[in-house]
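SAMPLE LOG
Freezer: B-3
Tube label: C17
Construct: single chain, 129 aa
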Amino acid sequence: MTTQATKNLETFDNPMHERDYTIRIDIPEFTCLCPKTGQPDFATLHIEYVPDRYCIELKSLKLYVWAFREEGAFHEAVTNQILDDLVRACGPRFMRLTAKFNVRGGIYTNVVVEHRQPGWESQPAVHLP
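STRUCTURE (predicted):
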């Protein structure tokens, strides 16, 4: 596998595709460029998903995220693009991407986007004593 930035996301077969379970991934070093100023924007990406047939391979995810370092993008656009690319790659039952951008001009931006497979409903939460 290459160590160059790439927009190619790889997957592997979900070892327990018959069960709903959650995968959580935190990426604290996301960067892209502000399309207005060219200045770097920094964010932490939080991915939560319930896989269906495929899971995202983590090294390819790292290389995918690196590919945004030299691209200009508004926070809202890049967050939606990443979700769309992840959903296209692995077809999850559910996926939520939260992008928490660092302060810029005294303003923090958090963008939350979701995908839900048609007909899929989450299991009720279990509350333990």
